[in-house]
UniProtKB/TrEMBL annotation:
Residues 29-307 form the D-isomer specific 2-hydroxyacid dehydrogenase catalytic domain. Keywords: NAD, Oxidoreductase. The keyword NAD applies. It comes from Amycolatopsis sulphurea. This is Phosphoglycerate dehydrogenase-like enzyme. Coiled coil: none annotated. Belongs to the D-isomer specific 2-hydroxyacid dehydrogenase family. One of its GO terms (molecular function) is NAD binding.
Protein backbone atom coordinates (compact mmCIF):
# COMPACT_ATOMS: atom_id res chain seq x y z
CA UNK A 1 0.00 0.00 0.00
CA UNK A 2 1.14 3.53 -0.87
CA UNK A 3 0.29 6.70 1.02
CA UNK A 4 0.53 10.06 -0.76
CA UNK A 5 0.85 13.25 1.28
CA UNK A 6 -0.78 16.10 -0.62
CA UNK A 7 -1.18 19.80 0.02
CA UNK A 8 -3.71 22.00 -1.74
CA UNK A 9 -3.24 19.99 -4.96
CA UNK A 10 -3.12 16.28 -5.67
CA UNK A 11 -0.43 14.85 -7.94
CA UNK A 12 -1.45 14.53 -11.60
CA UNK A 13 -1.13 11.42 -13.78
CA UNK A 14 -1.05 8.81 -11.02
CA UNK A 15 -2.98 6.23 -13.09
CA UNK A 16 0.02 3.93 -13.59
CA UNK A 17 0.68 3.83 -9.85
CA UNK A 18 -2.99 3.40 -8.95
CA UNK A 19 -3.22 0.40 -11.29
CA UNK A 20 -0.43 -1.36 -9.41
CA UNK A 21 -1.11 -0.52 -5.76
CA UNK A 22 -3.70 0.56 -3.24
CA UNK A 23 -3.16 4.31 -2.92
CA UNK A 24 -4.31 6.48 -0.02
CA UNK A 25 -4.31 10.26 -0.53
CA UNK A 26 -4.17 12.42 2.57
CA UNK A 27 -3.37 15.88 3.83
CA UNK A 28 -1.22 16.61 6.88
CA UNK A 29 -4.12 16.18 9.30
CA UNK A 30 -4.85 12.63 8.17
CA UNK A 31 -1.28 11.49 7.64
CA UNK A 32 -0.95 9.40 10.81
CA UNK A 33 -4.06 7.36 10.00
CA UNK A 34 -3.00 6.97 6.36
CA UNK A 35 0.49 5.76 7.34
CA UNK A 36 -0.77 2.74 9.26
CA UNK A 37 -0.14 -0.32 7.14
CA UNK A 38 1.56 1.67 4.36
CA UNK A 39 4.63 0.17 2.68
CA UNK A 40 5.66 3.40 0.93
CA UNK A 41 5.10 7.13 1.36
CA UNK A 42 5.16 9.67 -1.46
CA UNK A 43 5.59 13.15 0.03
CA UNK A 44 4.15 15.11 -2.88
CA UNK A 45 3.72 18.17 -0.65
CA UNK A 46 7.49 18.52 -0.38
CA UNK A 47 7.38 21.55 1.92
CA UNK A 48 5.17 19.84 4.49
CA UNK A 49 6.62 19.32 7.95
CA UNK A 50 3.95 16.78 8.94
CA UNK A 51 5.96 13.58 8.58
CA UNK A 52 7.91 13.69 11.88
CA UNK A 53 4.73 14.09 13.94
CA UNK A 54 2.98 11.22 12.17
CA UNK A 55 6.01 8.93 12.20
CA UNK A 56 4.95 6.73 15.15
CA UNK A 57 2.08 5.43 12.99
CA UNK A 58 4.48 4.17 10.29
CA UNK A 59 4.34 0.53 11.34
CA UNK A 60 5.57 -1.13 8.13
CA UNK A 61 7.06 1.63 6.00
CA UNK A 62 9.97 0.59 3.76
CA UNK A 63 10.43 3.55 1.43
CA UNK A 64 9.84 7.32 1.50
CA UNK A 65 10.10 9.45 -1.63
CA UNK A 66 9.94 13.25 -1.53
CA UNK A 67 8.92 15.30 -4.56
CA UNK A 68 11.78 17.75 -4.15
CA UNK A 69 15.56 17.97 -4.24
CA UNK A 70 15.90 19.07 -0.60
CA UNK A 71 15.05 16.45 2.01
CA UNK A 72 15.29 18.53 5.19
CA UNK A 73 11.49 18.46 5.84
CA UNK A 74 11.68 14.67 6.28
CA UNK A 75 15.21 14.21 7.60
CA UNK A 76 14.57 13.77 11.33
CA UNK A 77 16.38 11.44 13.77
CA UNK A 78 13.79 8.64 13.79
CA UNK A 79 13.92 8.35 10.00
CA UNK A 80 17.71 8.58 9.94
CA UNK A 81 17.98 5.74 12.45
CA UNK A 82 15.40 3.55 10.69
CA UNK A 83 15.81 1.12 7.79
CA UNK A 84 13.43 3.15 5.64
CA UNK A 85 15.02 4.06 2.30
CA UNK A 86 14.79 7.76 1.42
CA UNK A 87 14.81 8.99 -2.19
CA UNK A 88 14.37 12.43 -3.69
CA UNK A 89 13.57 14.04 -7.06
CA UNK A 90 17.10 15.01 -7.92
CA UNK A 91 17.52 16.22 -11.50
CA UNK A 92 14.08 17.73 -12.06
CA UNK A 93 14.91 21.32 -11.17
CA UNK A 94 18.56 21.63 -12.19
CA UNK A 95 18.30 23.47 -15.50
CA UNK A 96 15.36 25.66 -14.47
CA UNK A 97 17.20 26.92 -11.39
CA UNK A 98 20.34 27.52 -13.44
CA UNK A 99 18.28 29.65 -15.84
CA UNK A 100 16.87 31.60 -12.90
CA UNK A 101 20.37 32.31 -11.60
CA UNK A 102 21.56 33.50 -15.01
CA UNK A 103 18.42 35.64 -15.21
CA UNK A 104 19.02 37.44 -11.92
CA UNK A 105 22.71 37.91 -12.71
CA UNK A 106 21.69 39.65 -15.94
CA UNK A 107 18.98 41.61 -14.11
CA UNK A 108 21.60 43.01 -11.73
CA UNK A 109 24.20 43.67 -14.40
CA UNK A 110 21.78 45.36 -16.81
CA UNK A 111 19.82 47.17 -14.08
CA UNK A 112 16.47 45.87 -15.33
CA UNK A 113 14.61 46.74 -12.12
CA UNK A 114 15.60 50.40 -12.42
CA UNK A 115 14.69 50.42 -16.11
CA UNK A 116 11.21 49.16 -15.26
CA UNK A 117 10.80 51.80 -12.54
CA UNK A 118 11.83 54.54 -14.99
CA UNK A 119 9.53 53.15 -17.67
CA UNK A 120 6.57 53.30 -15.29
CA UNK A 121 7.52 56.89 -14.48
CA UNK A 122 7.81 57.66 -18.25
CA UNK A 123 11.37 58.84 -17.60
CA UNK A 124 14.12 58.62 -20.22
CA UNK A 125 17.39 58.28 -18.34
CA UNK A 126 20.44 56.88 -20.05
CA UNK A 127 22.78 54.75 -17.93
CA UNK A 128 25.69 52.43 -18.47
CA UNK A 129 25.41 48.76 -17.52
CA UNK A 130 27.85 46.09 -16.40
CA UNK A 131 29.34 43.22 -18.38
CA UNK A 132 29.02 39.74 -16.90
CA UNK A 133 31.76 38.16 -19.02
CA UNK A 134 34.83 37.60 -16.89
CA UNK A 135 33.07 38.22 -13.59
CA UNK A 136 33.98 35.85 -10.77
CA UNK A 137 31.20 33.61 -9.41
CA UNK A 138 31.28 31.30 -6.41
CA UNK A 139 28.64 28.54 -6.35
CA UNK A 140 28.27 27.21 -2.81
CA UNK A 141 26.99 23.67 -3.23
CA UNK A 142 28.47 21.33 -5.82
CA UNK A 143 25.59 18.93 -6.38
CA UNK A 144 23.67 18.60 -9.66
CA UNK A 145 21.91 21.98 -9.34
CA UNK A 146 25.18 23.74 -8.58
CA UNK A 147 26.80 22.04 -11.55
CA UNK A 148 23.99 23.10 -13.89
CA UNK A 149 24.43 26.67 -12.65
CA UNK A 150 28.18 26.51 -13.20
CA UNK A 151 27.83 25.20 -16.75
CA UNK A 152 25.33 27.88 -17.78
CA UNK A 153 27.26 30.76 -16.22
CA UNK A 154 30.48 29.54 -17.80
CA UNK A 155 28.70 29.46 -21.17
CA UNK A 156 27.83 33.13 -20.61
CA UNK A 157 31.52 33.93 -20.14
CA UNK A 158 31.68 34.04 -16.35
CA UNK A 159 34.51 32.58 -14.28
CA UNK A 160 33.00 30.02 -11.90
CA UNK A 161 34.44 28.27 -8.85
CA UNK A 162 32.76 25.94 -6.38
CA UNK A 163 32.57 25.59 -2.62
CA UNK A 164 31.89 22.15 -1.15
CA UNK A 165 32.72 19.67 1.57
CA UNK A 166 36.01 18.67 -0.06
CA UNK A 167 38.56 20.99 -1.68
CA UNK A 168 39.87 19.83 -5.05
CA UNK A 169 41.15 20.96 -8.43
CA UNK A 170 40.39 19.76 -11.94
CA UNK A 171 36.64 19.54 -11.38
CA UNK A 172 34.87 19.26 -14.77
CA UNK A 173 32.30 21.97 -13.99
CA UNK A 174 33.94 24.20 -11.38
CA UNK A 175 37.63 23.82 -12.08
CA UNK A 176 38.55 24.64 -8.48
CA UNK A 177 36.38 23.65 -5.51
CA UNK A 178 37.17 25.31 -2.16
CA UNK A 179 36.47 23.90 1.30
CA UNK A 180 33.12 25.32 2.46
CA UNK A 181 34.37 25.19 6.05
CA UNK A 182 36.74 28.03 5.17
CA UNK A 183 34.13 30.11 3.31
CA UNK A 184 34.81 33.58 4.85
CA UNK A 185 38.48 33.32 3.89
CA UNK A 186 37.80 33.53 0.15
CA UNK A 187 34.36 35.13 -0.28
CA UNK A 188 36.00 38.48 -0.97
CA UNK A 189 37.32 37.23 -4.32
CA UNK A 190 33.90 36.99 -5.97
CA UNK A 191 31.45 39.31 -7.71
CA UNK A 192 28.50 36.93 -7.33
CA UNK A 193 27.94 34.34 -4.62
CA UNK A 194 25.26 31.72 -5.30
CA UNK A 195 23.95 29.59 -2.42
CA UNK A 196 22.56 26.22 -3.46
CA UNK A 197 23.90 23.96 -0.70
CA UNK A 198 21.59 21.39 0.94
CA UNK A 199 20.35 22.28 4.40
CA UNK A 200 22.30 20.33 7.01
CA UNK A 201 23.56 20.98 10.51
CA UNK A 202 26.80 22.22 8.95
CA UNK A 203 25.22 24.59 6.41
CA UNK A 204 22.42 26.11 8.49
CA UNK A 205 23.15 29.82 8.98
CA UNK A 206 26.38 29.65 6.96
CA UNK A 207 25.59 33.06 5.44
CA UNK A 208 25.55 35.41 8.39
CA UNK A 209 27.37 38.53 9.52
CA UNK A 210 30.86 37.06 9.13
CA UNK A 211 30.22 35.85 5.59
CA UNK A 212 28.61 39.07 4.38
CA UNK A 213 31.36 41.20 5.94
CA UNK A 214 33.90 39.14 3.99
CA UNK A 215 32.25 39.81 0.62
CA UNK A 216 33.04 42.65 -1.76
CA UNK A 217 30.89 45.77 -1.27
CA UNK A 218 30.04 45.43 -4.98
CA UNK A 219 29.08 41.73 -4.73
CA UNK A 220 25.60 40.30 -5.21
CA UNK A 221 24.27 37.34 -3.25
CA UNK A 222 21.83 34.81 -4.75
CA UNK A 223 20.00 32.19 -2.66
CA UNK A 224 18.28 29.34 -4.49
CA UNK A 225 19.14 26.70 -1.88
CA UNK A 226 17.29 26.87 1.42
CA UNK A 227 16.17 29.90 3.37
CA UNK A 228 17.81 28.62 6.53
CA UNK A 229 21.24 28.84 4.91
CA UNK A 230 20.96 32.57 5.62
CA UNK A 231 20.59 34.49 8.87
CA UNK A 232 17.99 36.91 7.52
CA UNK A 233 18.46 39.68 10.06
CA UNK A 234 22.20 39.70 9.37
CA UNK A 235 21.60 39.80 5.60
CA UNK A 236 19.32 42.83 6.08
CA UNK A 237 21.97 44.50 8.24
CA UNK A 238 24.66 43.83 5.63
CA UNK A 239 22.53 45.32 2.85
CA UNK A 240 21.75 48.40 4.93
CA UNK A 241 25.43 48.86 5.79
CA UNK A 242 26.51 48.52 2.15
CA UNK A 243 28.59 45.44 2.89
CA UNK A 244 27.10 43.86 -0.26
CA UNK A 245 25.44 45.55 -3.23
CA UNK A 246 22.37 43.38 -3.63
CA UNK A 247 20.62 40.05 -3.21
CA UNK A 248 18.29 37.86 -5.25
CA UNK A 249 16.32 35.64 -2.89
CA UNK A 250 14.02 32.80 -3.91
CA UNK A 251 13.90 31.04 -0.51
CA UNK A 252 13.51 32.39 3.02
CA UNK A 253 13.73 31.32 6.65
CA UNK A 254 9.98 32.01 6.93
CA UNK A 255 7.75 31.32 3.94
CA UNK A 256 5.71 33.09 2.74
CA UNK A 257 7.97 36.07 3.40
CA UNK A 258 6.14 38.17 6.03
CA UNK A 259 4.56 41.37 4.64
CA UNK A 260 6.54 43.49 7.11
CA UNK A 261 9.92 42.10 6.04
CA UNK A 262 12.24 44.91 4.93
CA UNK A 263 13.46 42.68 2.10
CA UNK A 264 10.32 43.48 0.09
CA UNK A 265 11.28 47.10 -0.44
CA UNK A 266 15.05 47.28 0.00
CA UNK A 267 16.94 48.70 -2.99
CA UNK A 268 19.03 46.13 -4.79
CA UNK A 269 16.92 43.18 -3.58
CA UNK A 270 14.97 40.84 -5.89
CA UNK A 271 12.35 38.66 -4.16
CA UNK A 272 10.63 35.65 -5.74
CA UNK A 273 8.25 33.19 -4.01
CA UNK A 274 10.25 29.92 -4.01
CA UNK A 275 9.69 29.42 -7.73
CA UNK A 276 13.14 29.30 -9.32
CA UNK A 277 12.77 25.63 -10.28
CA UNK A 278 9.06 25.60 -11.10
CA UNK A 279 8.76 25.47 -14.88
CA UNK A 280 5.57 24.73 -16.81
CA UNK A 281 4.85 21.00 -16.35
CA UNK A 282 7.09 20.48 -13.32
CA UNK A 283 4.39 18.74 -11.28
CA UNK A 284 3.93 16.08 -13.95
CA UNK A 285 7.68 15.63 -14.17
CA UNK A 286 7.82 15.02 -10.41
CA UNK A 287 5.17 12.30 -10.74
CA UNK A 288 7.06 10.75 -13.66
CA UNK A 289 10.21 10.55 -11.51
CA UNK A 290 8.27 8.94 -8.68
CA UNK A 291 6.46 6.52 -11.02
CA UNK A 292 9.72 5.32 -12.52
CA UNK A 293 11.13 4.66 -9.05
CA UNK A 294 7.86 3.04 -7.95
CA UNK A 295 8.18 0.51 -10.78
CA UNK A 296 11.73 -0.28 -9.67
CA UNK A 297 10.57 -0.69 -6.09
CA UNK A 298 7.77 -3.06 -7.09
CA UNK A 299 10.24 -5.11 -9.12
CA UNK A 300 12.79 -5.22 -6.30
CA UNK A 301 15.30 -3.27 -8.38
CA UNK A 302 17.74 -0.63 -7.07
CA UNK A 303 16.10 2.75 -6.61
CA UNK A 304 17.41 5.94 -8.13
CA UNK A 305 18.32 9.05 -6.09
CA UNK A 306 18.87 7.26 -2.79
CA UNK A 307 19.73 9.83 -0.11
CA UNK A 308 22.54 9.21 2.34
CA UNK A 309 20.58 9.95 5.51
CA UNK A 310 23.73 10.89 7.42
CA UNK A 311 24.76 13.49 4.84
CA UNK A 312 21.29 14.73 3.88
CA UNK A 313 21.68 14.40 0.11
CA UNK A 314 22.37 11.93 -2.69
CA UNK A 315 26.12 11.25 -2.85
CA UNK A 316 28.04 11.96 -6.04
CA UNK A 317 28.09 8.24 -6.68
CA UNK A 318 24.43 7.32 -5.93
CA UNK A 319 23.86 4.26 -3.82
CA UNK A 320 21.14 1.86 -4.89
CA UNK A 321 18.58 0.22 -2.64
CA UNK A 322 16.05 -2.45 -3.32
CA UNK A 323 12.48 -2.03 -2.16
Amino acid sequence: MLTVLCGADSPPDMAAVESAAVVRYTDARGLADALRGADALFVYDFLSTAVPGAWPAADRLQWLHIAGAGVDPVLFPELQESDVVLTNSRGVFDDAIAEYVLGVVLAFAKDFARSLDLQRATTWRHRESERIAGRQVLVVGTGPIGRAIARLLRAAGMQVSGSGRRARTGDPDFGVVRDSGELPQYLGEFDYVVAVAPLTAQTKGMFGAEAFAAMKPSARFVNVGRGELVVTAELVAALRAGEIAGAALDVFETEPLPPDSPLWTMPGVLVSPHMSGDFTGWRRTLVEVFTANFRRWCAGEPLHNVVDKRLGYVPSEPQGAAG
